[in-house]
Structures are given as C-alpha cells and as structure tokens.
Amino acid sequence: MLLEEAIRTLKEAADPVRDIEKVPLARASGRVLALDLKASYDQPPFPRSPLDGYAVRGEDTICASEENPVELRILGKIYAGQVFRGEVHKGECVRLMTGAPIPTGANAVIRQEDTDYEPGKAGDFTGPDSRVKIFRGAAPYQNYVYEGEDYRKGDILLRAGTVLNGMRLGIAAGAGLNELEVYREPAITVISTGDEVIAPGQDLKAGKIYDSNQYTVVGRLADLGFSRVESMHCPDDPAIMADRIRKAKETSDLIITTGGVSVGEKDIMHQVMADLKGKKLFWKVSLKPGAPTLAFVLEEKLPVICLTGNPYGVAVNFELLIRPVLEALSLNPGIRSKTCMGKLKNDSPKWGGVRRFMRGFYERESSEVTILAGSHASGTLSSMAACNCLVEIPEDSGGKAGEDVKIYLL
Questions:
Q1: 283 and 211 both lie in a single domain
Q2: Residues 179 and 301 placed together within one structural domain of the fold
Q3: How far is CA 99 from the centre of its chain?
Q4: Is residue 380 part of a domain?
Q5: Residue 376 has pLDDT above 80, yes or no
Q6: Which pLDDT score is estimated for 291?
Q7: Segments in 189-253 forming alpha helices (H)
Q8: What is the per-residue pLDDT for 383?
Q9: 194 and 293 together in one domain
Q10: Helices (DSSP H) in 130-188: which residue ranges?
C-alpha cells in the first residue's frame, strides 16, 4: 500500500475524541477549544486613558499653545483601578494615569509632557486649589480609549476547534475566564514486544537488548503534548498480547505496538489480530524503513497500529503514520508533520527501488539538507541524535546532490 493511501485509511478509521472537559487556563495550552468563546462584557468595560496626563473637556483645550496656555483646575487624581466619583465641568480636569477610567464629563486626555507638570508641584494634585497649564490641547475624543474598543459583549473571541496557546489564553483571561472547555486528550496505550527485550536499568544478559522502542514512542507522544499514555512490554506470546490489548481497548482511543509484524515464528501480531477478531486495514506499506506495518481496528472504532520492531523503522513510521492518526483523534491540525522542500548537499547512500526516508540535517537559512553520515540500517538508532529531519528519496530518484527533496521536520 502506498504511504498516502495508508495515511488516508488510518485517518478514516480514527474516531475523533469529542468528549469535553474543563481545564484551568494554566493547563490549557496546546489543547483544542470545544466551544466558541464569547465575550460576556465589553472590553475595556469603561472609557480609559491610554497615557499619563489629564482628563479634560477637549473643547476647553483645543486652542492651547506654548504662548497661550490654558489653565485648568485639578479636581483630583486617580490611578488605574480607581474611579473618580465627581464630574468634570468647564475649566476643570482630573489628573489620571494610564489605564484609569476617564471621568464623567471629560472626553479627551492631555499628555503630561504637554503641561507644566512637576511631581509634588505645578500640575500635580496637592489640594483644592491645584491647577495645571496646558501647552498643547486635544480635540474631543483624542487620546481616548472607548468602552468596547477591543471587543463587545457577545463577540466570538475564539472559535471552537482553535488550538490554544499563550496568546489565546491571554485573550481568555482578559475575558474573565479561569478555565476553558476543551476536548479530552486521546488516551493512548503503547505496547512493545519481544522476548529478547528487557527494561532499561536491568543487567544486560547474553542475547538481550534494551527496550528503546517503547520509550521512543512514549517520548514522541510527550513531545507532541499527549499525556494520557499507558505503556508496557509484552513477551512474544499471542495469548498474553491479545489479553493486554483486550484490557487496553476499554480505556484507549489508540493502541500502538512495536514488533511482531513480519513473517517469522515470533511475529505474533497477525495471530493477535485474528484472536481479537480485528478488521485488517492493511499490512505492509511501500517504504523503507518499516515496511511491514500492520493496522487493524477493533469494534469498528479503535485503531491498533503495529509498527516494526526495528528502532529506526519505529521512529520513521511514528512521524509518517502515527502523527496523522493523532491529528484526527485530537482534532488538532498542529500535530501533523511539518514538511518543506530542501536541496540535497550530498548523495544519498541508498536510493532506488522503493521510497526511502533517510536521516538528515536541515539548514533553515539556506534550505539545504545533508544526509547524515553513518549507518542508515533499520536497527540503528544512535544516528538520530544529530537528526532534525527525515529526507524522502523517491523510488525513481537518484538521491544525488543538488536535487530538490521533500523534508519532514522533527
């Protein structure tokens, strides 16, 4: 099966998670908003000053100049968060600071730089006889932030389906909300297989290897913001694996396994699929590494994606096959792999016959990509340390320096 067909098949099998839960703003970044967020009041909720200065009647000051200043009586002083209880009449003003409500009767604000203001002296409010000289006037509604200038009550501030980030959480906080209704995170179970596989931290005995696949998958899920993840290891026993999947399906939206998908005696996942009466979606994708991927669904709604046991194949197929399913489940387009075109700086050591994905390093400034030196075998993972992209070498390409290639950014 072609990669594009496999992706389409998996996305169609995924059942998007539409359960809704409330989360505090501090934990909502990266989540998907489930309902439109509407303003419950005007913002700002009152006319306010955009600067430090004096709230005046613009018509009293419009003719002011350095040669002929206008002198006004100061009624009081207010800061942001305070309210002046009186009313400004002809020949009067109120000293105020940035963000303070503009008092009743005033319709403009004079910058303090355009006055004779001195702290504690001229132009400051020190008593009932305080006065200020205005050297440059303001027309009515100049330097005046209207009530509702940002938005009005009932306006939709964020649409359902919006992926939340810091700026959008700031909008929600400014609207007075301390929690948001978002779609529940998909619950994911990860199961690695292999009698030869042991957990990191144990003594490495003859014939054994450490379980890197489980941690590659769980780590990439965490990188993408998925926290509802259960992971475990299973021996090469189809009955045990079937039982673990049977239990996992009660609480999971997606099950990912690694290993046991080829044609050897220990490749158990075909038997597991049959024992669980799973509906096969496909087996084998036309690419390298990780061609023998198996996918099936349980009860018409739960995808089980069985990746190869080769560590690099797991890493590649997570990016190519798992991420599209995660996007469909979470209703979050930000999960999809980011791709671009780049120019090869060196020849690919492997090319031709089948679509390949090579370890690469992409230089954003020049849009050039280097295929990394070292082993490109499916079982080799260490060379991923310096890798920031996958380089696609089409089956009919020579993989030669200077060619334009598609890149999957990591």
A1: yes
A2: no
A3: 32
A4: yes
A5: no
A6: 94
A7: 213-223, 238-248
A8: 77
A9: yes
A10: 166-174
| 222 belongs to a structural domain | yes
Is residue 152 scored above 80 in pLDDT? yes
Q: What is the domain-level CATH number for residue 257?
A: 3.40.980.10
104 in helix, strand or coil?
Answer: strand
Q: Please give the biggest Cα pair distance in the chain.
A: 100
Residue 346 and residue 296 in one domain: no
Same domain, yes or no, for 198 and 279? yes
Q: Which domain holds residue 168?
A: 20-43+150-183
pLDDT value at 379 more than 80:
no
Residue for token pair 């009647």: 57
pLDDT digits (tens, 9 = 90+) for 292-345: 999 999 988 899 999 999 999 999 999 999 999 999 999 999 999 999 999 999
Cα distances (Å, whole numbers) of residue 386 to 138, 359, 361, 362, 373: 61, 9, 7, 11, 10
- The dihedral sign for the CA sequence 221, 222, 225, 229: positive
Q: What is the CATH number of the domain that holds 360?
A: 2.40.340.10
The fraction of the chain above a pLDDT of 70, given in percent, is: 100
175 and 304 both lie in a single domain: no
Give the confidence band of 352 by pLDDT, cuts at 50, 70, 90. confident
| The pair of three-digit structure tokens given for residue 118, joined into one six-digit string | 């001195």
Give the pLDDT confidence score for residue 392 in this predicted structure. 96
Question: Residues 288, 168: one domain?
Answer: no
> Tell me, what's the pLDDT at 109?
98
Q: How many CA atoms lie within 13 A of 185 on its CB side?
A: 18
How many residues are given for the chain? 410
Could you give the CA distance from residue 198 to residue 188 in angstroms, rounded to a whole number? 22
Whether residues 78 and 162 share a domain: the answer is no
Average predicted confidence (pLDDT) for the chain: 94
Cα distance between residue 128 and residue 143, in whole Å? 26
CATH code of the domain containing 129: 2.170.190.11
Whether a cis peptide bond, with omega within 30° of 0, leads into 44 is yes
- Residue-wise pLDDT for 103-125, tens only, equals 999 999 999 999 999 998 999 99
Name the pairing type of β-strands 254-258 and 229-234: unpaired
What total of structural domains would you count in the chain? Answer: 4
